[in-house]
Amino acid sequence: MKRFLALDGFRGLCALFVVIFHTHVLNSFAKHDFFRNSYLFVEFFFVLSGFVLYHTYGQKEFELKRFKRFFISRTFRLFPLHLVMLLVFILLEVAKWFAQKKGIMFNNAAFTGDYAPSQILPNLFLLQSWLPGANPLSYNYVSWSISVEYYMYIIFAFIMFWIPKKKEYLFGTLSILAFIALFFHSDVLKQEALRGLSCFFAGCLCYLVYLRISKIIISQIIFDLLELISIAAIIIVIISNFENKGICISLLFCLTVIIFAFDRGIVSRLLKSNPISYLGKLSYSIYIIHLAVLLVILSTAMIASKVSGRNFTPMVTENNIPVRVITTGSAIWDNLLVFVILGGIIIISNFTYKVFELKGIALGKRVLERMEAKSGLPELKSESQKV
């Protein structure tokens, strides 16, 4: 089955862009308008997930045994590292509580606000972006998108299992209704869920478009131009300010995914290079672990400020919101610090990818093998590793 190598690399770069968005280093390139708006690349993740999932499963008969395989493989793909990081954030709150007892205060008291104990259970089951009383941006708050994605997998599987003949119509209906709800700022579901539903099922439809045009003969120069134009359009939209920018960038990502699925243009050749391709493999780890790393760095800088008497973590206002940033006082050192942070996150991600992601996938395969051995089902094919 075809592997979309350029899109894998694209996903890795987008994960880094989200990291830089959360990296508040004052006199650095992280404060450029492009990175201040790079939270929008989460929409790319949703579109790409829908596209690749339909590529892997959309043309297959989704009988009960495949449904079970799908559910178990998806669960063991996402949950192990998610649960590890939730535990890390709980332990960080415990450490903050002990620090408070020693008279060391941080931005907020331990286990309050976004880190209230009441938010642990919704996070545990990845329900924080769906339950009315839950806070999507609690604990490891980037996991709000994993919460959305996991249950979109379940919706996808139920449609494939129960109503396969109408799947394209249902995917289109879900996507369009979610986009309409976003446009009118509806509260029918949480905004986080609507962002995912609109983009994920649009991504499924994008794969159908890709199939339709994949046999058309298009010259190399056309793909070069299309890729360059799509990248330029993404940059322009990201740095611009206008209403419903999220919807606009989502639709642009749909076109971009279709273009880069061909792996043909000049930008694709760069994205398929070994370093960027490896970032694609690490993208989930990069995304899910980076907030904890940034929080530890910020806390260390705050302690250094108290010890040295020099303020390395001033409060600044961004978009009328007070934000604590890190600064050395020098643009050169601040920019260098961002590169050091990114390098450290990649190194840690390489560890979590091998220790938690790959072992979680392997554990899921063993569970499936035992389940199928007991039931006498045919041996599992490695579909989970293709998504």
Task: Supply the key terms.
13 helices, globular, two-stranded antiparallel ribbon, mainly alpha, 387 residues, single chain, 2 strands, 68% helix
Protein architecture, described:
Mean pLDDT is 94; it is low at 382-387. Helix 7 crosses helix 8 and helix 9 (220-239) runs antiparallel to helix 10 (245-260). The N and C termini lie close together (11 Å). The longest helix is centred in the C-terminal third of the chain and has 45 residues, at 331-375. Helix content is 68%, strand content 2%. By secondary structure, it is mainly α. It has a two-stranded antiparallel ribbon with strand order 1-2.
Low-confidence spans: 382-387
- Sum up the overall morphology in one term: globular
Average residue-wise pLDDT? 94
Largest sheet: 2 strands, antiparallel
Q: How much of the sequence is in beta strands? A: under 5%
Which radius of gyration do the C-alpha atoms yield?
Answer: 22 Å
H/E series, N to C?
A: HHHHHHHHHHHHEEH
Q: Helical element count?
A: 13
Terminal CA distance: 11 Å
DSSP helix fraction: 55-70%
Number of strands: 2
List the topology elements:
Blueprint: H1 5-22, H2 33-36, H3 41-57, H4 64-101, H5 120-124, H6 144-162, H7 167-183, H8 191-213, H9 220-239, H10 245-260, H11 266-271, H12 274-308, E1 315-318, E2 321-324, H13 331-375
Antiparallel strand pairs: 1-2
